[in-house]
Amino acid sequence: MVNWSDPNVIVQCSNILEHINYLCLGLYMWEYARSWQVELALIGRRISPRWPLLPYIIGRILLLTSMILICWLSTPTSQNTNCHSAFVAFTFAGNASIGCSSLNLMLRPFIIWKAFKWVRVFLVLATVGHWVVLLRVLLDFSVMEVNGSCGFMVVDHTYMTTIFVYTMGYDIMALILTIIGLRNTPSSNAMWRILRKQGITYVLITCLANIVPSVVASLNLNSAMNVVFAMPASAISTIASSRIVVAFLDVQSSASTDETSSRDVPLTTMLTLPTSSYMDAQDCA
User: Fold this and answer.
1) Residue 264 in contact with residue 93, Cβ under 8 Å?
2) What is the DSSP-derived secondary structure letter of residue 76?
3) Beta bridge partners of 154
4) Sequence-distant (≥ 6) Cβ neighbours of residue 174 within 8 angstroms
5) Residues with Cβ < 8 Å from 18, sequence gap 6 or more?
6) How far apart (Å, rounded) are the C-alpha atoms in residues 171 and 235?
7) CA 227, 230, 235: angle at the middle one, nearest 5?
8) Contact call for residues 199 and 178 (beta carbons, < 8 A)
9) Could you tell me the pTM of the whole model?
């Protein structure tokens, strides 16, 4: 049986964590490079700026920033480096990207249920609670230096479990409210099929991505294992929710296609930018 508390085992787990972080950085840089149609469209003024796009853009930038930071922190650093402050910046960027990815899902029910103020108040409170859970870790963590580097964060395993479980519940609630709201909202059949299929698929992806780290964190094997799957979960959640945003922008042009079947709507980031969008119809510009 593995003695997870053995210092040598913790060092080995730290090395695995470092390799996973570098792998996530490489994969996300590739994903970012092939999916920046929205940013290019905004720069080229092919679509007008609108506030629902802020979580999408900010979340992607913050996740990339956090990945670069954590890879830098895992390399040998100068003695003058303040590891704790650096990890504060990393944690804020990483956890804020999780919050933004969930906001990408929650904005849709917030728009759909605009006629029901009590639902919107509930969604605001749930969102505030999510961000409190995400950011409270900034106040209570330590740093374990490894081989001359800043190493990794030592976080209470209950904090990590709470973050992943709350995020799963929050995303599932967003999907359920979206489906219920769309059933009572006049919209094209194509729009309903697209949002239902892609919404369910992507929420399932984010939930599966959060199940593994939540289970591992709840086991509390050691301080390195408690955070080993945090970065992959953040990356998968951000990629999945970002693709929902891109599909949502493309939904009007897709909805205009005659008898579009659900199997004809790929899970893709390819974007045909319309001159207006469903968001505009909802007064969100």
Assistant:
1) no
2) B
3) 142
4) 102, 105, 106, 108, 109, 203
5) 71, 74
6) 15
7) 160
8) yes
9) 0.80
pLDDT at 285 over 60: no
- Chain-centroid distance of CA 23 in Å reads 17
Tell me the residue length of the chain: 285
Amino acid at 157: H
Which of 167, 157, 171, 173 shows the shortest CA–CA distance to 215? 157
Residues 187-219 have pLDDT tens digits of: 555 556 666 666 677 778 888 888 888 898 888
Residue whose tokens read 């205009």? 256
For residues 77 and 60, what is the distance between their CA atoms, to the nearest angstrom?
Answer: 26
Sign of CA dihedral 189, 272, 179, 109: negative
Measured at the alpha carbon of residue 66, what is the angle toward residues 62 and 71, in degrees to the nearest 5?
155
d(CA 200, CA 234): 18
Please list the alpha-helical segments (H only) found in 34-152.
Answer: 37-43, 54-73, 83-112, 117-135
| AA letter at 51 | W
Q: Concatenated DSSP letters for 246-268?
A: HHHHTHHHHHTSTT--GGGS-S-
Per-residue pLDDT tens for 59-76?
Answer: 999 999 999 999 888 888
